[in-house]
Design a protein that fits this description.
Number of helices of chain A: 4
CATH superfamily of chain B: Thiolase/Chalcone synthase
Oligomer: heterodimer
CATH class of chain A: Mainly Alpha
Number of strands of chain B: 8
Helix content of chain A: 40-55%
Largest interface: A-B, 14 and 10 residues
Strand content of chain A: under 5%
Distance between the termini of chain A: 16 Å
CATH class of chain B: Alpha Beta
Number of helices of chain B: 7
Distance between the termini of chain B: 37 Å
CATH architecture of chain A: Orthogonal Bundle
Shape of chain A: globular
Radius of gyration of chain B: 17 Å
CATH architecture of chain B: 3-Layer(aba) Sandwich
Largest sheet of chain A: none
Number of domains of chain B: 1
Order of helices and strands of chain A: HHHH
Structural class of chain A: mainly alpha
Number of domains of chain A: 1
Chain lengths: ~80, ~220
């Protein structure tokens, strides 16, 4: 799980162009949206693409996004549970 | 109606210049992307969203930042009376191509939402308008190259139709490592920004062309 969390942080920095950040700047349990990294709705779409492209996981119900993308840890847990 | 250029800035060939004087240079020749990041840091612009913008928007955004450094237009003008009228040659071609590459292969079809939102050149003007809360006339027109007559005509029209009291206009072009930005801050002759200009620069096509020539042909 820790390895996946680290990889996810690196991927998030890359796909969201967070050029000023290092993986250790992203807190594993901090909210990604709102007061956390301050991501916006386009970033949310980019994270959906990341899950599909890099992990083969398609989010069928957009309402699930709120839980899945709450933090890096919730993303990692979702990937672990759903990756085929 | 007498209109005046109160200030102009250029970003051309690894240099940013304000009213014809060097404000920043990045001597190493390692390409546009590194240059624009170095310029962003130099001007101490605190706007993390800058890094998410496409290359063209970064150029337009930073050009407006430099033009308005230490100027708060909202002290003098209502947001809906400030215009931003830009011209550009390559439109958003660089990011258009990136988007096309991401959808070319039907078996590996992953369009990037953050690229897609920049597949229009007027997003560049939108980014600057959001940052500075401009709600007046806002557009980007395409021309083959720097066209002083076009810039003059659209700006003058915006003033004459009474839709703006102050306007940023000019040329912001970027494709790969080729880039040029030349912006003018325009106000009526009797406006509020007199102190910005040591001399009265009349807003007319020949003067814009002369400034473009100076900014593109100056030598160290």
């Amino acid at each position: 799980m820790e390895e996946l969390i680290q990889k996810l942080k690196e991927e998030i920095i890359e796909v969201l162009n967070l050029e000023e950040m290092e993986p250790e700047d992203i807190e594993t349990d901090a909210p990604l949206f709102g007061e956390g990294l301050g991501l916006d709705s386009i970033d949310a779409l980019e994270l959906i693409v990341l899950l599909e492209k890099n992990y083969g996981i398609k989010i069928e119900d957009p309402k699930d996004g709120r839980k899945i993308f709450f933090s890096v840890r919730t993303m990692a847990e979702y990937i672990t549970e759903n990756q085929k | 109606m007498s209109l005046q250029v109160k200030k102009h800035i250029s970003i051309i060939r690894n240099h940013a210049r304000v009213n014809g004087k060097k404000a920043f240079s990045h001597e190493s020749d390692d390409g546009y992307k590194k240059f624009i990041r170095a310029a962003y840091r130099h001007f101490e612009t605190d706007y993390p969203k800058f890094f998410k913008m496409d290359s063209l928007s970064k150029l337009g955004f930073l050009s407006v930042e430099i033009l308005l450094k230490d100027i708060d237009l909202s002290r003098f003008y209502s947001p809906d009376r400030i215009g931003l009228l830009l011209t550009n040659g390559s439109s958003s071609l660089e990011v258009d191509e990136k988007h096309m590459d991401s959808i070319r292969d039907r078996k590996n079809y992953f369009p990037s939402p953050s690229n897609f939102v920049y597949t229009l050149p007027n997003i560049m003007a939108g980014e600057a308008a959001i940052r500075h809360v401009f709600r007046g006339e806002n557009t980007v027109l395409i021309s083959d190259g720097f066209d002083a007559d076009l810039i003059y005509d659209i700006t003058r029209l915006a003033f004459e139709t009474a839709s703006v009291d102050c306007c940023i206009c000019g040329w912001t072009e970027q494709y790969g490592n080729n880039y040029e930005s030349l912006l003018f801050l325009i106000e009526r002759g009797e406006g509020h920004l007199a102190a910005l200009s040591s001399e009265d620069v009349i807003f007319e096509p020949s003067k814009l062309q002369e400034i473009y020539k100076q900014e593109t042909e100056w030598k160290n």
